[in-house]
Structure formats: C-alpha cells, structure tokens
C-alpha cells in the first residue's frame, strides 16, 4: 500500500470513528425516547399481568433460545412454581446512561430460597483502557438447607466479593475454594441462578467518570479534526488486571440485555404463545394449581414459536 | 376454573391485546424516529465507505451467526471478491409501514452473474386471516454459464412466479421440476443467493388494505370495550391456501430483518473487528488486491467478537 493510500486510510478511520460516536448518540437518544414512550404502557401492563396467574412462568416457558439455554430443568421448576413478577428498569434515567438496567424477580414462598425479591443491577461503565459495557455486583441468595442450585458457587462468589471489598488480597480461603470448584466441576449446566453472581470488570465510579470525560474530550477533538491519541488504548491490551477471572456466569451481561430487550418487551407475545401451545382457549388461563413442579420440570425443551 | 374466573380471564385477554396494539404503535413510532435521526448519518457513512476497499466484504466476514450460517464458502468468495456496496432502506417511509425494507447489493464484474445490482424488497403486509409479516417477490439473477450457485432453484422459483402471475395453474412444468428438485436434494447448504427467491405469503395490495382497515376497526372496538369477533381468525387456521409451499429459503424474512437491524447499523463495528482480527494496524486497510478468492473461501468460520 502506498504512503498516500495509508494516509487516506488514517483519515477514513477517523471518519468512521466519528460516525460511530454519532450513531451511539442516536442510539442513546432512541433508548431514552423508548423509555419515555413505553413507561405508562409498562405500568398498565403490570396491573393487568398481576391478575393473571402464572403469567411470568409461562413467559419463561416460551423464552427465546438465548435465554432458554441457561434455564436448567430445576431452574425451570423454581420459576414455574414461584416466580410471581418480573420487572426491568433503566434505572439511571432520566439523567444517566439508558443502557444501565435493573432486573427484579419476585418470588412466592418456595422450597429453594428465602428471598422474596432478587434484584440484579447492571451499570453501563467505561474504564481507562477505553472498554465500555455492563458491570454488576453479586446478589446473595439465601438458600434453604441443601437447596443451593449453584452447589455453593454463588455463596463463594459473594464471599470473594466481600473479601475484595475488605481488601483481603488474592489468597483468601473463598478464592481458593471457588477456583478449585470451578476447575473441578466446570460451568457446564450451571444453574440460571448463578447469573446473580456476575461481576464483570471492576470499575470504580471515579474511574468511570474520568474515563467518560476523557472519551468525550477525545470525541470532540476527533470531530474538530485534531490529532487524537488513540493508540494508548491499544497498547494497554495486555493490561487486564481489572479482568475478573472467576466469573461463574461469564455471559450474564448478554443475558441481561436479552431479558431487557426481548423477554421483557415481548412478554405478552410469549405468554399468548404459551397459552396457544397449551391448547387452551382464550378464556381459560392456566392457573397455579394446574401445574405442579414435577409437571413443570418434565416439560419438553421450549421452542420459540416461528 | 370458576365461571367468574373465566370471565375475568376474557377481560384480561382483551386488555393484553389492547396493550399489544399500543406497544406496536410505539414500536412503529420509534422505527420512524430512528429512520429520521439516522438518515443523514447513513448518507455520510456511505460516502466514507465508498472510499474504503473491501469494506462490505470485510463486514460480511464478521457477520453475526444468524447471517453467517447462510453464507456458504462459495457465496463468501463471491461476496469477498465482488460486493462493492450494500444499502438498506425503509422504502415505504414516510407515509407507509416502516417495517417494509429494501436491501440492495451492488457487485463488480464477477465470474458468477451478470447483474451489477440485486435488490430485494420486503413488504410488511397483513392478510384476511390476521397474519402480518414480510412478503417479497423473487429476484432474477442472470447466472453466467455453469455458474448458478443455486443449481437452478432460483431460476425455477422465478419461472413459477411468472407462471403464477400469468394464471397458469398448479401443473406447470416449472412447478413440477422445482418440487422434484427440492424433494431430491433438500435445502441443506443451499446458497445464500437462494434468499433472492423468497416469496412468503401471497397477499394482494387490495387484500392488505382491506385487512389493515379491518384490523384498525377491531382495535378501535376493543379499545372502546365493544365485543370483538376474534374467533374468526382462529377458525381459519386450516385455511392455508395462501401458504406458498415451495420456498427455497424459508427463513429469508428473518435474515432480511437481521441484515437490516444488525449488519447494516453495525457495519462499522464489524469492519473494525475484521481489521483488528487481520492483525493490521489502524492505518493499513486491507485492499482488494490483498485477498484472492481461494484465501477468502479458506477463511475459518467467523466469530462475532465478544
């Protein structure tokens, strides 16, 4: 490639980056608009749903493959027997990032855990290396004796997180145990409830704010055609000290987005599909009483309706 | 279930349907907003892209699995060697349905077909049975001798379509041949270019307009709490005379949506990922000359970057 061609490419590259910045702004604006336009509708929907027994369990029964693949038969039984409400909130709106999401599960009394509410928050954050995405904190589940669906993994993750917050260093008991257990059993077929253990990159609020400010300045400079030092980011690719290696549900951020952008807005559609497939008429909703746990666990793998 | 509970369920069902109608209105409004907010950006992007050799081939190289799974090695070679532009338009805007999409491929001279432009349009249409979705028309590809990537399937589909338009009935030569070929070879591993043959349900413009009008009246009635005759639709489930059975690319509508909502808006991201993975620095874009067809066809299965 000639020097001239290379020069041109550098210019195109800057232009592409500028465009990506502008597209991202539009995307955020559309997310804000969406939140505004749907707010009352979701509130109305929640009121209707609250009167329909097994609405959310039936929605999960018809969940798309990207969600369903993580729901093990026992998880499915728990959700079917005791999930009473689900809600998704873009909790940093109106002023913060619309990509931050909180997902709240509400449960009735069940034989697996004491919690009535399990809420997991994902913050959209940026770090000093230029990475941006969702980070979270482990949520503790109070398992009933012998009923831990994650075989202790979630408790260990929570303990490690507490140890980290207390600055206990790398060699804690919980870390060793977690590592051992992850190495010996692997994560194949891990419970959906391990999702509550996800942390993602460790980014403090200060680091995020500094990184967002730096990024804004960089974008402004690029827009004005000033030279931008982008290489800094690339050179630090090997600097992954922030990377949290002991993730028991590494794709939890993707799953959260899928819940927020597919299951949550499409809930009525999934529910009606479940009704149809159960061969019931419009006017006979399946009630709690009609499905016990064994039945639920024995349900065949769920398919998204074409 | 008691009679009272059943009555309540009927009420909830109406409410859910009302909500779905309202959510759909919001979705359409957001699609219109999106089109408005991104129009100039896409025009700007097209200008930058036009100066970058192999932009679209590299985007396809990094296409997400939902698209990539349909691109066979030979298709990939064709795209890599001769795809010069791609564009997506919501062509019924501003007045029509924002879900109708036109996808236009532009090619340089290549050894497979004569066409410089292949454009496929998908119309969002509703039929009298209450079905709504994307329908299309087959696009003819002028294959060079011995180079038909669909082994004659696309030509047959096109001929059947012409026969249908001419009212030639069910027993045409082309129909028999198409049926035979589909039965004998199946559609596993069919070329991406078979996508251009998709028809979907046969819905005339008159039927669509009548169905849209009927649906609007139904929605209005439901909103006002008047009785709505929804059963009519359900009873006609067996009336599938409109179903076109000889589809050589049955999921073409899903693929079109995936191109329009993922590949098209994410093109810069996919291009930059391709650049990175090719281990090239920011300023040395891969040019046409650097990749020949054999290399292209030999590329390993592409993964979406995490």
From TrEMBL, chains A, B:
Q: Write out the similarity annotation.
A: Belongs to the nucleosome assembly protein (NAP) family.
Residues forming coiled coils: 9-36
Xref: Pfam families: NAP
Acidic residues biased stretches? 229-246, 285-296
What name does UniProt use for this protein? Answer: Nap family protein
Show the SUPFAM superfamilies listed in the entry: NAP-like (SSF143113)
What does the UniProt keyword field contain? Answer: Coiled coil
Q: Where is this region: Disordered?
A: 207-251, 282-306
What phylogenetic lineage does the species belong to? Answer: Eukaryota, Fungi, Dikarya, Ascomycota, Pezizomycotina
Regions of compositional bias (Basic and acidic residues) in chain numbering: 212-228
